[in-house]
Amino acid sequence: MKRARVAWNGTVTDAVPLDDGRLLLPDGTVAAESDVIWLPPVEPRTIVALGLNYADHAGELSFAAPKEPLLFFKGKNTLIGHRGRTVRPDGVNVMHYECELAVVVGRPARRVKAERAYDYICGYTIANDYAVRDYLENYYRPNFRVKNRDRTTPLGPWIVSHEEVGDPMALRLRTYVNGTVVQEGDTGDMIFSIPHLLEYITEFMTLAPGDLILTGTPKGAVNVQPGDEVVTEIERIGRLVNYIE
Amino acid sequence: MNVRLRLAGRRHLFEAKADWRSGTMTLEGRTAPIDEWEWEAPDVGALYGVALNDRWEWEGMAEAMTAPPYEQPPKGPVLYMKPANTINAHRRPVVLPPGVQRLRAAPAIGLVIGRTAARVRREQALDFVFGYTIINDLSIPHEQRYRPAIKEQARDGFTPVGPWIVPKEETVPLSSLMARVYVNGQLVQCADLRRFRHPPEQWLAEVTEFMTLYPGDVLFFSWPADAPLVAAGDVVRIEMDGIGVLENRIIAEEGGGGA
């Protein structure tokens, strides 16, 4: 099952995307896509993100694959819905997208064993975790000026339930800039798998329903420019569209 | 002074008259020492810490900053987040993680945002602040600053906040605040805002240049350089004149060895 969150007719509501592109609202109303604004499908309190979780991307950035997951936190100021616009700051040299499978936690999760991890996951969505590399500094890297900028993490378009996705460790990821494929990967190539990550994280901190884990991005980071249309796509989940301004 | 607070087992927010000098509070017609109530952390959103703002800490690290892996001193703000699971309340225990003997208990002043703050100017920064609260910024001691210290900082209960939020109009000017830390009744640390490399107003401007702070979010500033290390059984008490007292006991996990 797919579940979106949209602004419609002056209110915020859950919505189920239909095959014809329209949206079914909880009261039975069917809304045209042109009548809604897509919002991030979940409002997490805690967002845990992964750096360097694909060996090919680590190599591309000249890092050895990490021995332990490289985690950092993000604030809700970063989130923006499907079809939103993200600002490339004036005067920077390198800003790149990062197509990532986002895991949505479904139950309070503390000291969860990897074998039970999927019992604690309600579904998945797509995150595009932009980075502005000009601002990288070697303190708590990746530092907030790189990764925690307003509206630099498109999320959506919707959440797809774990049951509907099946095995989240066998999904193709692709990013398109202006229609051209620029990034391709497979979630099976994560260094630390989703069950392992949930065990690792919840061993030392409790996650709550709605919290997110952004699981890292594969190789293929390319600079984007104002005017670009960036589509991050994950098999069995959907296509998340974002515009650079 | 009138403060905003939450109590254990009560769903709504309270406003109460508090006297930080006598440690008493008047609520629902009753005046009593504040420890007669059971506390919940005040209503706060995201907690962002500004690292390396303590001049003593900065000086202690200055030499390392020009060597690998840092290469040069930071130009922008060095921020970290204490996520929601870390929030803890006045007089609630802090549990030592399995295998950990000591925690660093750094006192911090928290600025609670009152209205959405994006690209604020330094001169107007405090207009966006509702008030102040005390934070005990606990972490497992660590030296490395190259990567986010998530495992050291983000443990459940590692951020006592409170006991309340004092609206800024109700108390002394921000620049005159100071913190005293007691461990088991012994004074172990005294620090004031003169030790900060930059005043909070400047950080509010620098931080909101690229990230919006929402009402309830907290930007906090700690004094870690001479903060005490504490162990199971220790009681940490942070006093800030003009705000109040935040006290927590460190305890070992039941069962000791963890799951």
UniProtKB/TrEMBL annotation, chain A:
Single GO biological process annotation from the record: 4-hydroxyphenylacetate catabolic process
Domain of life: Bacteria
GO molecular function, one term: hydrolase activity
Keywords, ordered alphabetically: Hydrolase, Metal-binding
KW ATP-binding (keyword) present: no
Keyword Transferase in record: no
Name of the protein in its database record: Fumarylacetoacetate (FAA) hydrolase
Species this protein is from: Geobacillus subterraneus
UniProtKB/TrEMBL annotation, chain B:
Taxonomic superkingdom: Bacteria
Stretches that traverse the bilayer: none
PANTHER family in UniProt: 4-HYDROXYPHENYLACETATE CATABOLISM PROTEIN, ACYLPYRUVASE
Keyword Membrane included in the entry's annotation: no
Designated name of the protein: Fumarylacetoacetase-like C-terminal domain-containing protein
The UniProt record lists the keyword Translocase: no
Organism per entry: Geobacillus subterraneus
An MF annotation (GO) of this entry: catalytic activity
Pfam families: FAA_hydrolase (PF01557)
InterPro entries per UniProt: Fumarylacetoacetase-like_C, Fumarylacetoacetase_C_sf
Domain Fumarylacetoacetase-like C-terminal positions: 48-250
Keywords: Metal-binding
Gene3D superfamilies linked to this entry: Fumarylacetoacetase-like, C-terminal domain
